[in-house]
Amino acid sequence: MKVISWNVNGYRAVWKKGFADWLTESRPDVLMIQETKSWAEQLKSEQLNPDQYTGIFSKPERKGYSGVATFSLKPPSSIAFGYDIERFDAEGRVIITEHNGILIANIYFPNGKQNLARLAYKMDFYEVTLDYFSKLASAGNKIVVAGDYNTAHKPIDLARPKENEHISGFLPEERAWIDRWIEAGFVDIFRRFNDKPEQYTWWDMRTGARARNIGWRIDYFFVSEAMIDQVKDAWISPNIIGSDHCPLGVEISV
User: Fold this and answer.
1) What string of H, E and C letters represents the secondary structure of 119-167?
2) Superfamily assignment of 2-252 in CATH?
3) Is 148 annotated as catalytic?
4) pLDDT tens sequence across 205-221
């Protein structure tokens, strides 16, 4: 089962940049996109269910903001939206679907750069996420939690760690949460296959950083320890353009 995650920075925008052709060519079994900035009601039928895929969209309160969508070739056996906590669910950041006995969570984690209030919101969202999925993992579920985490974990995960030590996205408390996430039994599966530097998933479009590969790895696939052996490959696709993020994926044996 091929699973891909991609922060598209606007679903309607990326659709105009060859998204449909890319989807046909890459043909994942499950595709998760973040930052859709779209309600289902705003989309055309071919965008809702492209190329034989079943599409599931969250509905943030604010139009043009946040949002995630999950597409699959076979309909999921279960679907859940959010954490049943209005403060977080209002932004439409979480869809959890089940495929072949695996819970696949598509999450767009908050960005904390705007101000201290948003940083606090991000850290609270992290805590709820940790609690929610730790309970599911303890119950024996096989889990994939993928998406834009909006934090680079280690110095190897961004081009200029020293210059960004005091910037949200590389703050000690944000990085410490990822440490706790890993301690709770979730594995950064890409690093099991690739331990090289300069492996990034996001580049600042305003500074032309992508051409110079001045980037950050802030998009991840974390998998529960119960299914590590089922992951046969993990990769990042920096050559795929259309967003300030690039797609990343895993191959899972089912």
Assistant:
1) HHHHHHHHHHHHHHHHHHHHCCCEEEEEEECCCCCCHHHECCCHHHCCC
2) Endonuclease/exonuclease/phosphatase (3.60.10.10)
3) yes
4) 989 999 999 999 999 99
